[in-house]
Amino acid sequence: MFTDGSLGVVFGAYDFAVYRLDRDGKLVWRTPTNGTVYGPPSIDADGSVLVGSFDGNLYKLDGATGGTAWRSALGSHGDSGWATAAGSELVYGLSNEGGVCTPW
């Protein structure tokens, strides 16, 4: 459930953006990043969205508006699943690769 109390789906795309659709498939918001969003976004207990981008940042987005609460440089791509611990300020990520990707 999102901060506005509604349901829906959030996903990233190769067009450098994160999208939220409502339960009927209508666009609620689109938030641009500066890189492909390949890894899965996570919905935090407070309804915010955690998502990494190939721009090397982890984003925390407001689930209701898509506004960027903060972004943090990872030093690598954000191709990861993300989680937070209840009552903690820590964010956990697990990537299938380590280190910086080599340019192709």
What does it look like?
- This protein has 104 residues and is an all-beta fold.
- The chain has no helices and nine strands.
- The chain has strands at residues 8-13, 17-22, 27-32, 42-43, 49-52, 57-61, 68-73, 80-84, 91-95.
- The radius of gyration is 13 Å and the shape is globular.
Give a short overview.
With 104 residues, the chain is mostly beta strands. The chain has strands spanning 8-13, 17-22, 27-32, 42-43, 49-52, 57-61, 68-73, 80-84, 91-95.
What labels would you give this structure?
single chain; 104 residues; mainly beta; four-stranded antiparallel beta sheet; three-stranded antiparallel beta sheet
Residues in β-strands, percent: 35-45%
Please state how the strands of the largest beta sheet are arranged side by side. Answer: 4-5-6-7
Principal-axis shape equals globular
Given the helix and strand composition, which structural class is it?
mainly beta
Helices, by number, come to: 0
Fraction of residues in helices? under 10%
Biggest β-sheet description = 4 strands, antiparallel
Radius of gyration: 13 Å
The count of DSSP E runs of length 2 or more, i.e. the number of strands, is: 9
Query: What is the arithmetic mean of pLDDT?
Result: 82
Which H/E pattern describes the elements? EEEEEEEEE
Distance between the termini: 38 Å
Poorly predicted ranges (pLDDT <50, ≥5 residues)?
none
Strand-helix topology:
Elements: E1 8-13, E2 17-22, E3 27-32, E4 42-43, E5 49-52, E6 57-61, E7 68-73, E8 80-84, E9 91-95
Antiparallel strand pairs: 1-2, 2-3, 4-5, 5-6, 6-7, 8-9
